[in-house]
Amino acid sequence: MRDRDRALCLFYGLFTIGGFLVMTSLIVDYVLKHREDGPFGVLGDFLRDAMTNAASRLIYADLTLVWIALAGFMVVEARRLGIRYVWAYIIGAPLLALCVSFPLFMFIRQLKIASAAKCAPNPSARLSAESREKGSDDH
Questions:
Q1: Consecutive sets of 10 residues in the chain, 139 residues long: mean pLDDT of each?
Q2: What pTM was computed for the model?
């Protein structure tokens, strides 16, 4: 693996772990404060709290639109690079956090790119050729 690939994998991996730890601690804190309402009550409380004012609605609308755009990117890249189970990364965003699922996808993506680099002297040329071949199959 090239130094650049290793550095990117380290960045994405650390970001995934950091995002997971931060978001999990926030989720646990919220659930513990609302546990007397039961599982469905916690979810209801969260949705109500998340939509309390215009600022929180703005943030959720922004995150939703970014999530949809990133989902499109992930599907295209998954098809191009042969990444399986892309749906799990997309569904993972609203279930845990976008800051966990997207860097995890980028980590896996970088591993695929690094793997392609081992097989070809110029990985971008190889990936471009594969994309052209797939594109010609569609016509």
A1: 92 96 94 90 90 91 95 96 94 90 96 84 58 56
A2: 0.79
